[in-house]
Amino acid sequence: MCGFVGSIYTKLDSNFIDLKDNAKKIHYRGPDDFGYIKKSISKSTYELAFNRLSIIDLSIQGHQPMSDNDNRITVVFNGEVYNFKEIKDELTKDGYSFSSNSDTEVIIYSYKKWGVDCVNRFNGMFAIAIFDDNTEMFYLLRDRIGIKPLYYFLSDTIVSFSSELKPLIGLVSTSDISTESISEYLLYGYNNENRTIFNGIKKVEPGKYIEINYSLTYTNIVSYWDVSDQSSLISIEDRDNHLEYLKNLLIESLRLRLIADVNVGIFLSSGIDSSLLTSILVNDLGVDIDTYTIGFLDKNYDESTQAKKIANYLGVRNTSKIFSEKYLSESFVDVLNLLDEPCADSSIFPTYLVSKVASEKSKVVLSADGADELFAGYTKYIKALKYTERYNIIKNIGRQIPNVLISECYRLSRHNKLAKLKEFSVSHSLIEQYDIITKGLSDYELNQFIDSNEWITNRKYEFYEISNSFLRNMLYYDFKTYLPNDILYKIDRATMFNSIEGRVPFLDHNIVEYAFSLDSGQKLSGNQGKLILRELLHSYLPDDLIRSDKKGFTLPIEKWCNTVLSEKFYDTLRSTTKIDVYFNSKNLIKLIDDYKYGNKKNDFNRLYRIFILKNWVLVNL
Prior knowledge:
Blueprint: E1 2-9, H1 19-24, E2 33-41, E3 44-52, E4 66-67, E5 73-81, H2 84-93, H3 103-114, E6 124-132, E7 137-142, E8 151-154, E9 158-162, H4 179-188, E10 201-203, E11 208-213, E12 219-223, H5 239-257, E13 264-267, H6 272-283, E14 290-296, H7 304-314, E15 317-323, H8 325-336, H9 348-358, E16 364-366, H10 371-375, H11 379-399, H12 403-413, H13 417-425, H14 430-438, H15 443-446, H16 453-458, H17 470-480, H18 482-496, E17 501-503, H19 509-517, H20 531-537, H21 557-561, H22 566-574, H23 585-597, H24 604-620
């Protein structure tokens, strides 16, 4: 919906950047209106700047920052509280009066009535900053799943926070970039938990809020929700009732996410998830909705023809745009330059393109993200179950592999199976084994580029062991890591770059809690995942429109990096940057040369991650 930047300080640091100027860095998040306030209380001062994307209550009454009628409670808020009308009715009955139709004002008076515990009543996606001049406390709150981003910088004299990392970068130096952050990024393509690429800048984690007093002498992080706490199974006895239960949850989630004073559309691919959402919109909610699809001339990556057939069958409008390779490759670098922190998921690019297409007609768009993590849609879950069984048979052999053999194998081919088998053989949990199987590099390979021994040793996997089910633990691991830090990062940035709002119906917290209560057999069997979603979709679409071989939202990035983007790719990899001190330059140059001039094609993914990281440094530091 929007983007904000804020600070509270007892004195200004020498490197403090003008807040209004900083807010301009994320103007695209809210080009419809700008708001700013500055206020001093006791010995502290706070400033808030807000870029508004008008979605609900388009009038000036929805302007932010917004305060209560006493001008003592002030809020900036990015996102949506979808059930704000129900909460507003409850507050009205208790005597509270409202001057707008916005959900922001409902947040203010919810806080006045229930305090910070009001967050438990909100169904939505949100990053909220609440300043309470009465108690001289302020709060930074993030939604349960992590759909909306929220970053902060904390020192003895200032706290700054923002909807993106960009406005905070000037508050830290390159010395604040940590080996830990780079190591984690190279392994996964993103940073987990509260970490960013900088030691000095953190993320408010999903389902948590931070409370800080105005004098900056007290800070406390509170966890108000985690799906692992919702452990009881929903007592539905037969499969048909489960289907009906899930269907009703999806209907309600979609009903709430249609609430807007602007046009709402939906991304439609040929996949199960978006097809199911669109089918429910049409058949159960009677919505005449715009659907958006992109296609590519390379038929190995194109889904537009099948998506068009689904749209025609459902009787909805479909806007489909086919992109040439020339246009795609030329636009690719522009998208990379918009990233506020390194993220090596190349699917952000097609997501950006479909958002660009949607922005011509809709200001809000629905996306099917999250279904794979909830209902076991990725093939990696199937592979992990199989590989773990096989590896456990031979892991005693893995313990006997000498390091010199791993080193020689790496020197000859850099194939990581031996290194991963050695890691696997000394692992302590199934989740650690899952991580070894699915991460981009083995720890041995990582250490060829960066000294990361301390962080590798200190990784904690036991936090993700929430049940006796290996599949449930894998899903929880991805729900806490991959989903908020890759998938939701991607959908937020890709939509907001185009000044539209992305909403994710599968990630209504009621659906999340339900999904984690399901038995694993209702999600995955044999070589097929998302069983319950597939079965539900069969009640809407004929078999020939339900594909089991979805291509995925990918592009031929490796091909481009060796053809039309090769100059950019290799120049960036070899460039001198402010983070080169963290790398073993000799090994990196060898990796680049071996890949470019040799035949070690399995090296591309690790080179691509380094390329993204170096490009980010060149653009932002």
